[in-house]
# Entry
Amino acid sequence: MTIHRGLQIFLEGRFIRHRFIKFGVVGASGTVVNLFMLYVNQEYLFKNIYPMERRLMLSLSGAIFLATMNNYLWNRWWTWKDRKEAGRLGFFTQMGQYYLACILAIVLQYLFTILLSRIIYYLVANIIAIILAAILVYVINDMWTFAEKKVGLFQKKGNLM
# Structure
């Protein structure tokens, strides 16, 4: 198999499909929430907190939390709505799974934003970090949080043969 064919199979598989487009739309809405809250926190809510690094840490923490909640709700209700059995454990249990799945992405986004903000504008640094984290969180959520129910050899989804 050539590298080109391997890349084509990869792109046609898990990433380039209808669900990933929905995930991207949800992610875009989360990015708007994140950037808006980061700006509001930095420029208004935490304006008087010094040093500036502490202000950025508080602002970013709040922005990431709200954007993650936004993304969970929309992903549950729209992106993975066809996987009803994935929600069998209940709203808050699945939300816990979603947040656990997002922890690595959140930490990655946080660290990249802090590091990159030393050399580029903090909002641009945050956008770059969000893109990197989005790829990771999609894979984790598709394979775990909203995973399809395993079907046994003699079962159809939801029914015994």
In short: The chain has a mean pLDDT of 84. The radius of gyration is 19 Å.
